[in-house]
Structure formats: structure tokens, C-alpha cells
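Please, does this match?
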Amino acid sequence: MRHIPGRAACDQILCTQMISTPSIPGNPLELERQVCFALAVASRTVIAVYRPILEPLNLTHPQYLVMLALWERSPRTVKDLSAALQLDPGTLSPLLKRLEAVGYVERQRDKTDERALAVTLTEAGQQLRDEALKIPFKVVEQLDMSFEELAQLNQVLHKVIAKATR
């Protein structure tokens, strides 16, 4: 091994820092231990569970999220929807166009603010809610988890989101 000037001092500082910081048992860089990896894989696999459930309703997962927000409150401005869904308006706009094309929503200028675009559920969009009520039960069945387990997971995920965005 080649001698590097000051290396002993660096090694001593590094060891001191490692001793004074909380240690993580095992390899902290192991892929399976990474929260980001688990979240990414869980997201992809859970969305894959939704895909065949949403297909008969002529919805993609992102469109389903838009519809959920509109079933909570309609009409909503694009700005409000964008904030609720944590989506950039440029990402939201094509979703709204497709939902409008299938007849689930209408977009028009907001009556209270001509600069804003309001999104309203159509009759077909409102009726779709009745079919959508079955979705959570189908997801629970597919995941073979209880509502309680999924509620706990949801609570922990919202805590992670809050801590990561503060």
C-alpha cells in the first residue's frame, strides 16, 4: 500500500466520526435495506395490481387519482387539482384531456375567475363512482392484506411524505 501523507490522521478522524455517529448494524448500503428501493418497488407492484382492476373502467392509475380528487369535490380548478395530486399542471393537462375525451369530465373557464380552468365531473363521471367503490375491496383481495394493515401502511407512508417534504 502506498503511503499517503496525512492518511493516519484522516483515518483517525474517520474512525472517531464513525464511533461518534449512530451505527447501523450490517451493511447500510445493502440494496434490500434501502427505503427508496422498497418504496419504488412497492409503488410499481401496487400500481400493477390496480391496472387490470381499472381497465374495465377505461382508466389508467393516474386518471383514477384525478377521478378520486374530483369525486371528493367537483368542480375544481386545474391549480387546485394539481396541488391535491402533487402533479405539475403540465403533467395533469394530458390526463384531463383523456378524461374529457372519454366523457368523464368537462373543462371550462371558472365562473368566478376567467383566468382559471375548472374541471367538472360529467354525469358519466359521477356514475363511474359507483363502480369505483368496488376498487378498494378488489385491491385488498389481490394484495391479501387486511384493511387495517393497509391503513397502517398508509399512515406510515404519509408520515414519510410529511418528513421528506418539510
